Amino acid sequence: xxxxxxxxxxxxxxxxxxxxxxxxxxxxxxxxxxxxxxxxxxxxxxxxxxxxxxxxxxxxxxxxxxxxxxxxxxxxxxxxxxxxxxxxxxxxxxxxxxxxxxxxxxxxxxxxxxxxxxxxxxxxxxxxxxxxxxxxxxxxxxxxxxxxxxxxxxxxxxxxxxxxxxxxxxxxxxxxxxxxxxxxxxxxxxxxxxxxxxxxxxxxxxxxxxxxxxxxxxxxxx
Amino acid sequence: xxxxxxxxxxxxxxxxxxxxxxxxxxxxxxxxxxxxxxxxxxxxxxxxxxxxxxxxxxxxxxxxxxxxxxxxxxxxxxxxxxxxxxxxxxxxxxxxxxxxxxxxxxxxxxxxxxxxxxxxxxxxxxxxxxxxxxxxxxxxxxxxxxxxxxxxxxxxxxxxxxxxxxxxxxxxxxxxxxxxxxxxxxxxxxxxxxxxxxxxxxxxxxxxxxxxxxxxxxxxxx
Lengths: 222, 222
Known about the structure:
2 copies of one chain form a homodimer.
Chain A: H1 2-34, E1 40-45, H2 53-60, H3 62-65, H4 79-88, E2 93-98, H5 104-115, E3 119-124, H6 126-129, H7 136-141, E4 145-148, E5 158-162, E6 166-170, H8 176-181, E7 184-189, H9 192-208
Parallel strand pairs in A: 2-3, 3-4
Antiparallel strand pairs in A: 1-7, 2-5, 5-6, 6-7
């Protein structure tokens, strides 16, 4: 019996070892599959015309969500809707670093986030922020912090970072002309290896453009 | 002896099983580590001034490589040098889709690649290609294929694809003003998930801007 117990115990050990290894492999595979895949998208413009009212109404509050789209344009399924949707997903912070910002839908989305308590910061270009149709004045009026350069060079970035996690960057200025008429691209990336350098660049510029560093000339004009 | 051989054989089997599993794990890990990591970089501008002559001379041919940098500026280690270096690494193809292209160093690099037998194709914006300092005329003169839009909207992309493998895209137009004075970004990515949509966009635009589709008006002007 003792001698027969030998191979039995060894077989049990072998079985247990292989079984455990299999179980671990299955658990690791399941965890790997369950892990949400980080967002990696490329949006191209010009964007199809579409109704963005539903997205903005939903974001404004539950009572407004039932309001049907007021125009016959299709909803969603276009690059502008996707950008708007990603933007409105912000819960804690929105950092915008935009050469030119004049699209009214995107302006409304940013104001809405600010009202919802999301910390919004905007960096923009001095030469372009005063142009007709610019949203920068409205954003400032709504109490959103805006900083700008004082250089002869342009602050030419066009990126947004949602909740310090989702980066949207590309050739697209946030203007209706660019969205509706230009060939443009916008990358959506949730990958820290790309997001981190842009977060650092934002903080670097934000500090550099601190109003305490602005220079004013003796005649009162800048 | 026979009974004692039972546990011995089972032990041997167990040992072999665990040993093989360990060996496989080590080999897989080694292969995974050996695999070259795909490029993932972010370049920011303005770029430090630097001498790009050495890079261009090296690319021109081995006899020119020994020529020392003709100016006291530091070499490499700046965003422009890195962009130039990546560009000059092209062996088979270079696809450029650029709103504005006037930087002479980058223009020389593209001509050099063309002379080296790399298939260069350029898509650009009609309204900007004729501006003073534009490299587009030089590229056409050198025999490089260039196609452009005929729209009122801008062909506003700013991307390059090297050997259908490395994508460089961002806010940066290929102008000396942008490189030396603006706040700009350029992503370098070797990831097919991002490269493929840009390759498709390039082919789509390349076909759409085929000169056989150009429209000419009756008075002879476009």
